[in-house]
UniProtKB/TrEMBL annotation:
The keyword Plastid applies. The lineage of its organism: Eukaryota, Viridiplantae, Streptophyta, Embryophyta, Tracheophyta. This is Uncharacterized protein. It is a multi-pass membrane protein. It comes from Triticum aestivum. The chain crosses the membrane at residues 79-100, 112-130, 198-220, 232-252, 264-284, 296-316, 354-377. Belongs to the bile acid:sodium symporter (BASS) (TC 2.A.28) family. GO terms for cellular component: chloroplast envelope; membrane. It is found in: Membrane; Plastid, Chloroplast envelope. Keywords: Chloroplast, Membrane, Plastid, Transit peptide, Transmembrane, Transmembrane helix, Transport. It comes from the Eukaryota.
Length: 392
């Protein structure tokens, strides 16, 4: 899990640089609040409730925080933020280790892999509250477009690429499976880097994650069932166990045990960084031999899937009259999904090991492609008149 500190301006102009008020260009506006968000990768920028420090003038209350706490928190945030922005480096390092020293990462097999992925889902749940789901209801069109892009455009794109490139049945099934997976928490980090709308990204990831219980097995059965036998019920049960249960437990813990949750959130980010890197490296290590012999023909379809998904997500958002920040967010959500979940489902519910290979390749393509796009957008900045499509 990754973490970053984000400033949100009380004047309603929140998509600005870290630590700056949109109106005063100051680091210490009396009307702004600092939101520390923990973000899971498989990884993510978690929702904005880890810790809140309200300015005394705005809140009109006396502060009981010791004077040294902000400094300590700031140092911790800087370390984790650095680890977050270096995520592509960890992915590349994990890929190299997975291919050339697979024994270092292949110990994270199915059962442990399931536990690790479940922990990441729990981490995301710990940062959510029931209010987040009410925010989804206040933004039906914005969140809905992202949901349709994730579960309509991406699966059809995976199916079309598999048929066009005439992939073998196992590889085609694996490509379709990963294209039907929900948004990955890494998209929240990429959105943050790209100056997109992080709050919207977190909500879209949450909605697609919950939707995966039905959509992932249903779409996989519909699109890949003609290629290989698909156990839709088994896929649904596994997705429910690995994704929904940990998320619900996290939400309930945050709602009813907030003090306990605060202590957990403070230590999970750095653990999550290590865990996420392993969840990226382990799939590569487990299919290392296949990648050495068939890597070239596998990279093209997976890279094409992500590249076209990024482009379609962006232009559909523009066509829907969304602002630049929202369009970037939806593009990243459409192009990045939970490849680790796809790998786990392929291992548990398909007999042919080749079905898991596209998900393993997707881990690398998704992380590098999404990070590169995020850095490109960050350097371009946002239009001065960019509109806000998101209602808090």
């Amino acid at each position: 899990m990754l973490c970053a500190s984000i400033w949100r301006c009380c004047h309603g102009e929140g998509r600005v640089g870290i630590g700056h008020c949109a109106r005063t260009s100051d680091h210490s506006c009396s009307g702004c609040q600092l939101l520390l968000s923990s973000v899971d990768w498989s990884l993510y920028i978690a929702n904005v409730r880890s810790r809140q420090i309200f300015c005394k003038a705005e809140a009109n209350i006396s502060s009981n925080l010791p004077a040294s706490e902000p400094t300590g928190a700031s140092q911790y945030e800087k370390i984790v933020e650095l680890l977050t922005t270096l995520f592509p480096v960890w992915v590349i390092l994990g890929t190299v280790i997975g291919i050339y020293k697979p024994s270092m990462v292949t110990w994270l097999e199915t059962d442990l892999f399931t536990v690790g992925l479940g922990f990441l889902m729990l981490s995301m749940g710990l940062t959510l509250t029931f209010e987040d789901f009410r925010r989804c209801l206040r933004n039906p069109w914005t969140v809905g477009v992202g949901f349709l892009a994730q579960y309509l455009i991406k699966p059809m794109l995976g199916y079309a690429i598999a048929l066009t490139l005439k992939l073998s049945a196992p590889l085609a099934t694996g490509l379709i499976l990963v294209s039907c997976c929900p948004g990955g928490q890494a998209s929240n980090v990429a959105t943050y880097i790209s100056k997109g709308n992080v709050a919207l990204s977190v909500l879209m990831t949450t909605c697609s994650t919950i939707g995966a219980i039905a959509m992932t097995p249903l779409l996989t059965k519909l699109l890949a069932g003609q290629l290989v036998p698909v156990d839709a019920a088994g896929l649904a049960i596994s997705t429910f166990q690995v994704v929904l249960v940990p998320t619900i437990v996290g939400v309930l813990a945050h709602e009813y045990f907030p003090k306990f949750t605060e202590r957990i959130i403070s230590i999970t980010p750095l653990i999550g960084v290590i865990l996420t890197t392993l969840l990226c490296a382990s799939p590569i290590g487990q299919v290392a031999e296949v990648l050495k012999t068939q890597g070239a023909q596998l990279i093209l379809p997976v890279a094409l899937l992500h590249a076209v998904a990024f482009a379609l997500g962006y232009w559909i958002s523009k066509w829907s009259s969304f602002g630049e920040s929202t369009s970037r967010t939806i593009s990243i959500e459409c192009g990045m999904q939970s490849s680790a979940l796809g790998f786990l489902l392929a291992q548990k519910h398909f007999t042919n090991p080749l079905v898991a290979v596209p998900s393993a390749v997707s881990v690398v393509c998704m992380a590098l492609g999404g990070s590169a796009l995020a850095v490109f957008w960050r350097n371009r900045g946002l239009p001065a008149d960019d509109k806000d499509d998101f209602k808090e």
